[in-house]
Amino acid sequence: MSVVPLLLPANQPADRFYAGGGQIAGFRRQAWDGSRVPEDWVGSTTTLFGEASLGLTVLDDGRTLRDAVEADPQAWLGERHVARFGADTRLLTKLLDAGQRLPVHLHPDGPFAAEHLGRAHGKTEAWVFLRGGAVHLGWREELSAARLRRLVDDQDVDGLLAAMHRVEVTPGDAVFVPAGMPHAIGAGTFLVEVQEPEDLSILLEWCDFALDGPRDGHLGLGFDRALQATDLAVRTAGQVEALVVRAGGTGPVLPTAAGSFFRVDRAAGGAEFGAGFAVVVVTDGTGVLSSAAADLQVAVGDTVLVPAAAGAVVLGGGLTALVCRPPAP
């Protein structure tokens, strides 16, 4: 396999249920035809729920990244990672352009996903904003399971949103979203998302979206069972704010609690990060990303897949980037 960092083209599943794609195209310095392509799955070994291959990153040699990693996990992921986690990348990175507010939804945690869906992971996630706006996150008032079910059955969107915290975010802010927590990303935001490598969503809202919620909103489990994955805990404004890291300097950008799921660092020119599987999203500037194996010219909007065998990587002067990685082995 190639041990050099690889510049990745866009990997945008078509005809998604919500609008967007223009901000990804602008960021990547590409044209956009107005279609619904609001997500770019970067360095993906994950498929969309129910799909055999859609969502997987395809390498220049025609192999999927998933197949390449399975064939040589130590080269891609590193000896320590493989010793602890096997050939599981434990990471999915996306660019997400919310051309409209996303529906209120949640993701199951690991134990629920294992018991009811036979999956290796739940879907805890985090967002690092390149363009700010508003998000809804967690319950601010008490809801019984019965009341939640009524809100969902009635598609009482106003009631759902009124029961949730609304948080304003600005560029550079990061938000950690534990599995089970209801959330909705606001219209106009643009972000880098990191998550556990699964595509598992339980819908609380679907009206006015290109979705058949009663059929597809419960992962095939039925809502009686699926809604049991919901975290009904009431959180204070302070508790929700503790999930948010406001824009700062370089270094880790996520709350400490995120570290058992994934890592994201904001790096500036001259920064070096050690050997290991990583997705680098260049957020500003033009320059060279250097490793012992090769130098790669990059610019804002580029996404780079770094195999562990490439060794330590240095970000050239004039560049800033988000370095997205699995949990430390």
Can you describe this structure?
This is Carbohydrate kinase. Keywords: Kinase, Metal-binding, Transferase, Zinc. GO terms for molecular function: kinase activity; metal ion binding. By secondary structure, this protein is of the alpha+beta class. It has a domain of 222 residues: Jelly Rolls. 19% of the residues lie in helices and 28% in strands. Strands 1-19-16-21-14-13 form a 6-stranded antiparallel β-sheet, with no helix packed on it. It starts with 5 loop residues before the first strand and ends with a strand. The model has no long low-confidence stretch (mean pLDDT 97).
Q: Could you say which structural class the secondary elements and strand pairing correspond to?
A: alpha+beta
CATH class of the domain at 9-72 and 91-248, named: Mainly Beta
Beta-strand residue fraction? 25-35%
The CATH architecture of the domain at 9-72 and 91-248 comes to Sandwich
Overall, the morphology is globular
Radius of gyration: 19 Å
Task: Describe the sheet with the most strands.
Answer: 6 strands, antiparallel
Q: How would the blueprint of this fold be written?
A:
Blueprint: E1 6-8, H1 22-28, E2 39-42, H2 65-71, H3 73-77, H4 79-85, E3 92-97, E4 105-106, H5 110-117, E5 125-131, E6 133-139, H6 145-154, H7 157-162, E7 164-169, E8 174-177, E9 183-185, E10 190-195, E11 202-203, H8 213-216, H9 223-226, H10 237-241, E12 244-245, E13 251-252, E14 263-268, E15 272-273, E16 278-284, E17 286-291, E18 295-299, E19 303-306, E20 313-315, E21 320-325
Antiparallel strand pairs: 1-19, 2-3, 3-10, 4-11, 5-8, 5-10, 6-7, 6-9, 8-12, 13-14, 14-21, 15-20, 16-19, 16-21, 17-18, 17-20
